Amino acid sequence: MKTPVSPVLKESLETPFSGQYDVIVAGAGPAGVPAAVAAARQGAKVLLIESNGCLGGVWTAGILTWVFDIEKTDLGGEILERLGKRRAYVFANGETMTNFTYDVESMKAVLDEMCLEAGIDVLLHTRVVAASVNQERALEAVVTESKSGREAWRAKVFIDCTGDGDLGALAGNAFQMGSEENGALQPMTYMGMFAVPDLAAVSDQVSFFGGQYNHLDAYPRFHETLRKLNIETSYGHPTLFQVRDNLLALMVNHEYKVDATNARQVSQATMRGRAELNRVVDGLNGAGSPFKGAFLVASAEHIGVREGRRLTGHYQVTIDDLMAGKRHEDAICRVRFNVDVHSSDPKKGKGLKTQKVIPYDIPLRALIARDVHGLLMAGRCISGDWLSFASYRVTGEAVTMGEAAGLAAALSAKMGVHPHELPWGALAGVLPVLPTE
């Protein structure tokens, strides 16, 4: 006879406070690192919390290797400059947006340097698991779990840069997930890098090669090679990017209908994605293949998540804003990237649909949580509808949003006000100037 499992585990936990900060940033990806650095350079005492074993999020743990639409604001430009000194990135020539490939290990080193130089306290291998909100709806502390056990941390201002809106949800802020129409979620992508022995033999199949972006011609050629080798991929636009020398990024995987907030689903998607990368690279070594001799160099620690929660803010960016090129007095970011919706159902197609936008502003209000005081957000978890999110979610925009959120958090902490009470003039005076058309 089996012993029944109790449906509830009752715990009595006393969590020690381990530190007090001006600003705590949850998530150290393309938004989180700029947020922490910007706040620290304003004189704030900053704690940066990251669940992975390195800074950079999808840039590093996710092996993205490609950045879309980074604006040359103060920190965006600095990241480029530091990568440039390491000869670790290549611009896409002829592109109107600032797009480039980069070396993952160099990106890790650059982000480490910036945080160390700014005097930021960094916790890797650490996850925010709870939040304490007082009766005035102000976020006062977060609880983390790591090898050090459960610890609590106080701050004057917090920034959610987790991508999936984890901190905002834990604090009780409202959020949306998926399409307003049917709840559809864009697929995840598991990335890897592989080396090829004869780069010249396959260069016409590489979407970004030698500084030239030629995706519309290159990916069909790569797709044809895969077809001839009887390799079917879950992504309908299999794509290769040159990272450096004979090292190529491999984007062939889509994981459909996976909830980014469900650990089991994300775990299964990660294992399926890794298996697909190995299957594709093994297949590319088939008889007569121009990729003969290729081998997998690295697979991602963290699957690339396109969407999770979108936290509700004091303003919601909408698709109408994008179509009208809307301007805001409290603009912190000007976005040019098109709406980019990857198919959510492989039975209806494995590609993507795009829609052009008129360059539009993201206001500071979209970065300020509506239901919880003292909480900002930056990156893809800001306040917006599903279609607008498909434009501003790219990592180049996350840098600019993170920088603005970090500046706003530091000033709010210094002035003793919540971010929604921060006078716009105080922030406008330190924000990088937005690019003109």
Give a structural overview.
With 437 residues, this protein is of the alpha+beta class. The protein is 28% helix and 23% strand. The strands form seven sheets. Strands 1, 2, 6, 7, 8, 9 and 22 form a seven-stranded mixed beta sheet that branches. α1 (32-41) runs parallel beside α10. The mean pLDDT is 94.
Report a brief summary of the structure:
The chain is of the alpha+beta class and 437 residues long. It contains 11 helices and 22 strands.
Low-confidence stretches: none
- Provide the gyration radius in Å: 22 Å
In total, the number of strands is 22
How far apart, in Å, are the first and last alpha carbons? 73 Å
Strand content: 15-25%
Main pleated sheet: 7 strands, mixed
Q: Note the overall shape.
A: globular
Helix/strand-derived class?
A: alpha+beta
Mean pLDDT: 94
Specify the number of helices: 11
Report the helical percentage. 25-40%
Topology:
Layout lengths: L16 E10 L5 H10 L4 E4 L16 E2 L6 H12 L3 E3 L8 E3 L1 H14 L3 E3 L3 E7 L5 E8 L2 E12 L5 H6 L3 E3 L14 E4 L3 H4 L5 E2 L2 E2 L1 H14 L10 E6 L2 E5 L11 H22 L10 E5 L9 E3 L7 H6 L6 E5 L3 E4 L9 E4 L4 E4 L11 E3 L8 H7 L2 H21 L8 H5 L9
Parallel strand pairs: 1-2, 1-9, 2-6, 9-22
Antiparallel strand pairs: 3-5, 4-5, 7-8, 8-9, 10-17, 11-15, 11-16, 12-13, 14-15, 18-21, 19-20
